[in-house]
Specification:
The structure is a homodimer. Helix content of chain A is 38%, strand content 20%. Chain A is built from 10 helices and 12 strands. Chain A has helices spanning 5-18, 24-31, 51-63, 77-89, 136-149, 173-188, 204-216, 229-241, 259-263, 275-287; strands spanning 36-41, 67-72, 94-105, 116-123, 131-134, 156-160, 195-198, 223-226, 251-256, 269-272, 297-300, 304-305. In chain A, the strands form 2 sheets. A 6-stranded parallel sheet of chain A has the order 2-1-3-4-5-11, sandwiched between helices. Chain A has a 6-stranded mixed sheet with strand order 7-6-8-9-10-12, sandwiched between helices. The longest helix of chain A has 16 residues, at 173-188. Chain A is elongated, with a radius of gyration of 24 Å. The model of chain A has no long low-confidence stretch (mean pLDDT 92). Chains A and B meet through helix 2, helix 3, strand 2, helix 4 and helix 8 of A and helix 2, helix 3, strand 2, helix 4 and helix 8 of B. Strand 2 of chain A pairs antiparallel with strand 2 (67-72) of chain B, so a sheet runs across the interface. The structure holds a DNA duplex.
Chain lengths: 319, 319
DNA sequence: TTGTAGGCGTTATCAC
DNA sequence: GTGATAACGCCTACAA
């Protein structure tokens, strides 16, 4: 206290009476910081639940008394640079550059001009900006482990990526890392996937067709690892067409945990993309005092959402 | 041009060399406007495609060279007021107060302190703030008309709301207005809905159970008007259980046009929530010079997305 | 047409 | 400890 209690009370009263509120803009001018963080992303809109990225960021920002300035570039690199600069002009404390699904990209030079964090983006060239991404490889291991624990050792098919040779949609970090984790964990148990169907566009239609094709061949699959929930939805439809019951006849495990996962019947076991947590961490990292390892990669765990689409394997002659 | 071309060139050169960028904060302090708009909403996150609201707002803002400051309140009224004030402290040009689904609510007093627009919110008491909402009643009429044109006159059931007596989830503007439109349009053709099943929570589970119940009774439905796509998904599941084919045996028409609508088989005909357009209009209204009718309600049309879930009615003895 | 000074509302510094 | 004063960077009005 630098002033007397009397004066303080009087001031406070005056504040209340006048409805005085400090002008944040002028404060920003003076101090050089606007208590604002820029959030620049490619697409909020196209990916429904990626909004949770923003949600997490918003919460973390509010806890630290910050507001978020947001912009969307729809992948336009020039616009991206422009937005970053526009925000820096406004004295933001830092910028979160986010992608709605994990991608490998060049980091725009503008981001390096001040504090920044990469969210869901893996830089093609090493750079000093911290990176926050989901731990996809571990998620792959989780999926494989869950199947192994349920007793599956054969008839495990992958829907979304090819296995021999490995083939994944390019640029999609999730695909290759999930695959890696799956293969690794299965191999540790002496198991090899029975096959995999590369799907270009991970929508239900692709999952439907891939699964249909799988069923057309003699070897009936025992378990499907679908690389996202939309593929799973298509797989469910194909299984239904073939009068096969999910969990009883064919188990399905999936990734992302979009809302549709819980809408399917039986409800789909899925390994969740931790959008909220990713958003949080990006902000926390940006505002961290020491900023620890500047170029560090922060992997956020992907939790298993256990539902009913994986059944225990029945003991068979081959088992 | 108030200066000579020579000088201008020199200045521009200096700008380029120095990398000079005007300080927007100081400009804001001087001019009193920050070229920023506040976007305060209840939940970006829970409602997947509501992110399109932000998308539209973002696009409209960028076209006018504005940035968006966003905040989320999760329905906390106190936080809402606080956020609005925080944003006004930052000299925003105006505030869009948005809800992720159309709701009837009290307008916080803080919104009235400066320019504001209500997005997806219907004020309980009349107030001078412009309102942007989807035209739900007309959407209801569209749904009914589509069914009538396909030849349906009987066996039309509503899933989501009750009919005799009308019963809708409270606070949900969409439910009551859609119902109104449906009844109106059917009545104009001398048709009455055969029944309606009130569902409290408009998720697939509710749609599934309601449809199951419907099928248990003798009178087979010919057409279902599901009040959102999630209910429709549940209805599809119940129909499938009963070995009824959508479009051939029972037609389904729906509202919202979430992504899942196009994932279903057959793809679901749905009347779309114009999120993007709603977001756009809110910003445009806020920045409109004349601001025309201040307290006006702007209804944005909901377009019919024609897919395959409505079949033409077969001529029957009763037809 | 060009130059200059004053002020937007803070905060920070520096004498007292 | 306290109170006056300069400065943040820009815009604008007014004088030259």
């Amino acid at each position: 206290m630098r002033i007397s209690a009397q004066i303080e009370a009087k001031v406070l009263e005056a504040v209340a009476e006048t409805g005085y509120r400090p002008n944040v803009v002028s404060r920003s001018l003076r101090t050089g910081s606007s208590h604002t963080i820029g959030f620049v992303s490619d697409t909020v809109a196209t990916t429904p639940f990626a909004g949770h990225l923003i949600w997490g960021a918003l919460d973390a920002a509010r806890e630290r008394d910050r507001l978020l300035l947001i912009a969307e570039t729809e992948g336009d690199a020039e616009l991206e640079t422009q937005m970053i600069e526009t925000m820096r002009d406004r004295q933001v404390e830092g910028i979160v550059l986010a992608s709605m699904y994990t991608r490998r990209t060049n980091v725009p030079a503008a981001l390096l001009d001040g504090p920044g964090v990469l969210l869901n983006i893996v830089p093609t060239r090493a750079c000093a900006v911290p990176v926050v991404i989901p731990d996809e490889a571990e998620a792959g291991r989780t999926a494989a482990r869950h199947l192994l624990e349920a007793g599956y050792r054969e008839g495990i098919y992958l829907v979304g990526v090819g296995v021999n040779p490995p083939k994944t949609p390019r640029g999609a970090v999730a695909a290759s890392e999930r695959l890696l984790g799956i293969i690794e964990e299965l191999a540790a148990a002496g198991v090899t996937p029975a096959g995999g169907a590369y799907v270009k566009d991970w929508q239900p239609k692709g999952g439907y067709e891939a699964t249909k094709e799988l069923l057309r061949r003699r070897h009936q699959p025992k378990a499907l690892i679908c690389f996202n929930d939309r593929l799973s939805m298509g797989a469910f439809q194909a299984l239904e067409d073939a009068a096969l019951m999910v969990a009883r006849d064919v188990s399905v495990i999936s990734f992302d945990d979009e809302p549709v996962a819980s809408w399917l019947r039986p409800a789909l076991t899925s390994i969740a993309l931790p959008h909220y947590e990713l958003g949080r961490q990006a902000i926390e990292l940006l505002l961290a005092p020491g900023s620890e390892a500047p170029g560090g990669v922060h992997r956020v765990p992907m939790p298993l959402r256990l539902r009913e689409s994986v059944g225990r394997v029945e003991r068979t002659a081959t088992g």
